[in-house]
Design brief:
The protein has 241 residues and is of the alpha/beta class. Helix content is 32%, strand content 10%. Helix 3 crosses helix 6 (227-240). 30% of the residues are buried. Bound molecules: zinc ion. Zinc ion (ZN) binds at residues 1, 113, 211, 217, 219.
Amino acid sequence: MSDRNQKQTVAYSSPDTDSGYRSNGRGGKDRKYSRSSGRKMPDRSARTAKLLLILIAVAVVGKTAAALLPSGADAGYLGSVTVPDWIDVQIIETDGASRRGENLSRLSDIVIHYVGNPGTTAQQNRDYFNSPESNVSSHFVIGLEGEIIQCIPLNEISSASNDRNRDTISIEVCHPDASGKFTDASYRSLVRLTAWLCGIGDLRSSNVIRHYDITGKLCPLYYVEHEDAWEQLKTDIARAI
Ligand SMILES: [Zn+2]
């Protein structure tokens, strides 16, 4: 089940703009004189040497600044991923609630949910996300027949996983009854979709988590109550990656 964390305030820190070079490598006027002879070097050579030092300094400082950024800090690449044709793309309207139009800060994990409304279809759940009364959403909904609908662009946040919305992709799965157990068709699609997402995000099956693992909510219910089924799901995903 989706949960929008009302209290959430996501602070996006912009990259450190202090990435300009602090040292220009200049050593003062004395550098015009060679150490060995003390003779004055030609001005042109001195200028070339200074320019080289500046270029080296800029390269070093730039590389250091890039290394200091957290890995995966930019999830922008997800916006240019080609979605395979087995996914039915039906992006919902940006309304500031279900779809806030904010970018993922990074992609750390994939979060699995169940819809919590037995017998409903993927289309019904997607259409609910798109309705004015909804303030929840997930990136994907998987239906009882294994159909997969995408509701939120990969590089944007959904409103599903509380304070982990900012760095996760969410999948809601439909279920036929109150146990919350997925159909075989839903299960197969879930494994396929999750493995594909792990591939594009360079993630492993250990990066596949439940809503339960974030908040303790009993979601996805069957896979919280049956730890062995959850472990089997992750094993199946690992094989498919
Ligand atoms: Zn949930």
